[in-house]
Amino acid sequence: FFFKCVFQPTECFLSQPEEKQESTVKAKRRKKKKISDVLQKSAPKPGVPADLQNLLTQHFGENRSVIEMEELKLSDSCFLPANDLSHSFSSYLKEVCPKWAKLRRNHKEKKSVVMLVLCSSALRSLELIKSMTAFKGDCKVLKLFAKHIKIKEQMNMLEKGVFHIGVGTPGRVKALVEQDGLCLNSTKYMILDWNWRDQKLRRMMDIPEV
């Protein structure tokens, strides 16, 4: 029978196993869960102080001593109430910062902002800037991301003018701080865009570089 298969391939019935294999692969592909399916079952939930604290511990835990880790711990009083997901961005900011008008008037320092909003992309930054119109009032907002904006341009703007709110990405904000372009001494509020997900369905805190 072996030689028949070699010399007379018409007598070998190989098509049926191939079809089975193909159908098995297709079945496996269908069964594979997508992250979107998983996320649909797990609704977004408000962040709590422990969420951020756990991330800091995971990131720095292997490289820092016990004493250094203690210095990284923040008390719950350092945190604002999280958005319970019933608020728009403007209404949430009004709730956590009721004295914004006074803070805005009193802010005179250059190279600094009163409120720093961090999110995962330039496009998301622009969305948040548009959505905070009802809150910001008569104040200047600075875009702190890399897309189409050079870091030197941002540093010049911070040095020459007074800005109240900065909205941008962690990478660009970090670079500005390290190059002494942005000073955080006057910053009273830091808002993290916690639950929003990008096209790959990652939150800002799920991105390793952040």
From TrEMBL:
GO terms for cellular component: 90S preribosome; nucleus. InterPro entries: Cms1, P-loop_NTPase. It holds the Pfam family CMS1. PANTHER family: PROTEIN CMSS1. This is CMS1 protein. It comes from Ptilorrhoa leucosticta. The gene is Cmss1.
